TrEMBL record:
Its cofactor is Mn(2+). PANTHER family: AMIDOHYDROLASE AMHX, PEPTIDASE M20 FAMILY MEMBER. This is Peptidase M20 dimerisation domain-containing protein. Residues 172-267 form the Peptidase M20 dimerisation domain. GO terms for molecular function: hydrolase activity; metal ion binding. The lineage of its organism: Bacteria, Bacillati, Bacillota, Bacilli, Bacillales. Keywords: Manganese, Metal-binding. It comes from the Bacteria.
Length: 376
């Protein structure tokens, strides 16, 4: 006999309560993944463990193996430094995401046999460092997967509790890390040196003059500047910097990086100094499937009502989920679940409305049934 959403309430809540007590950082989610795998095996799923170190997948097949709908949940926690102490916290809601996925798995375990396809669950490590999705893709977890669904709890100002959005649109992002090489000199004879602080100051000013479309969601911000460690009367010859760069599209991000590179070269030339830098790979912007977005919209309307559908949400945050569709041909969508997250994501005191997990279970389960009911 199939279980109801209401019958899942205690299971989902208790699962989240347990996972919240065992936060584990990227690629070290051993207790978390062991617990998740045990739950899935008890439900009757075909489970594979130790993918990309700690990843887990689980699959059940209905009347046919294809099409296959996959649901992805992240598992890792945030690493906080508080009062010079390193602390692990589930302050991004990954405990809730994993609990929601387990709730969907339990809800679908009997229903799948009446559907024309299969359902797969991907429990991914290391989202917070942007490495997990790439590692799981390289391990082949999307082979044979036609549709991929992701989701995230949101704050009240983006998507209030009781509401959901069919698409959360993240920014593309990267970091630029650099070093300044000038020339040391006596503080009383600055004309004989090349002051790394002057170069850094010019670089900040010059970068801030770069023009870009304000509607593109582009943001270029220096987040680290360092120079000078010796005596106060010595011109520093060495400095370092770091920039956080974001944009609403992958193409726009590439264009902004090209402008930054030109400005770095110009600044080095101005001071007769040398600037070395590297652009570190960040995360891409999404490539969503329009039909999947409509599937999500129908599910939200059915479960929560048309008045509780929030238009697609643009956020400056990044998400490595989008590597899945960039590295493969899978059709993907990523939903926003209204949960009144407070004070905010990545805050060590973060809380949320627990019932939001059940909204996720019900809406995403309906999406699976929509996608696998054709021809059944």
């Amino acid at each position: 006999m199939s279980i109801s959403i209401e019958q899942l309430r205690d299971y989902v809540y208790q699962t989240q309560k347990y996972l919240h007590k065992i936060p584990e950082p990227a690629f070290k989610e051993k207790k978390t993944s062991t617990y998740i795998a045990k739950q899935l095996k008890e439900m009757g799923y075909e489970v594979t463990e130790h993918i990309a170190k700690t990843g887990v997948t689980a699959k059940l097949t209905g009347k046919n193996e294809y099409p296959c709908v996959a649901i992805r949940a992240d598992m890792d926690c945030i690493v906080h430094e508080m009062k010079n102490e390193i602390m692990y916290r589930h302050s991004c809601g990954h405990d809730a995401h994993s609990s929601t996925a387990l709730g969907i798995a339990r809800f679908m375990k009997d229903r799948i046999y009446n559907l024309n396809g299969s359902v797969k669950f991907i429990f991914q490590p290391a989202e917070e460092i942007g490495e997990g999705a790439k590692a799981m893709t390289a391990a082949g977890v999307l082979e044979g997967v036609d549709y991929l669904i992701g989701y995230h709890l949101r704050t009240a100002h983006e998507c209030p509790f009781g509401k959901m959005s069919p698409a959360l649109i993240h920014s593309a992002s990267c970091k630029i890390i650099g070093e300044i090489y000038g020339k040391t000199a006596h503080g009383g004879r600055p004309h004989l040196g090349i002051n790394a602080i002057d170069v850094l100051s010019s670089l900040v000013t010059n970068i801030n003059t770069i023009r870009f479309n304000p509607q593109s969601g582009t943001s270029v911000k220096f987040t680290q500047l360092h120079a000078g460690k010796g005596s106060v009367n010595v011109i520093p010859e060495y400095g370092t910097f770091a920039m956080d760069v974001r944009s609403g599209s992958n193409e726009e991000l590439k264009a902004v990086i090209r402008k930054i590179e030109k400005m770095i070269a110009h600044t080095a030339d101005m001071h007769d100094g040398k600037i070395e830098y590297r652009v570190t790979e960040g995360v891409p912007a999404p490539l969503y499937d329009e039909n999947l977005m409509q599937t999500a919209q129908r599910a939200i309307v059915k479960i929560l009502g048309s008045e509780n559908v929030v238009d697609p949400i643009h956020t400056p945050g990044g998400e490595d989920f989008h590597y899945y569709s960039q590295l493969t041909n899978v059709k993907s969508i990523y939903l926003a679940i209204g949960a009144n997250v407070c004070p905010g994501l990545h805050d060590p005191e973060m809380t949320f409305e627990k019932e939001a997990m059940l909204h996720g279970v019900e809406v995403i389960s309906d999406m699976v049934e929509q996608l696998l009911s054709k021809g059944s």
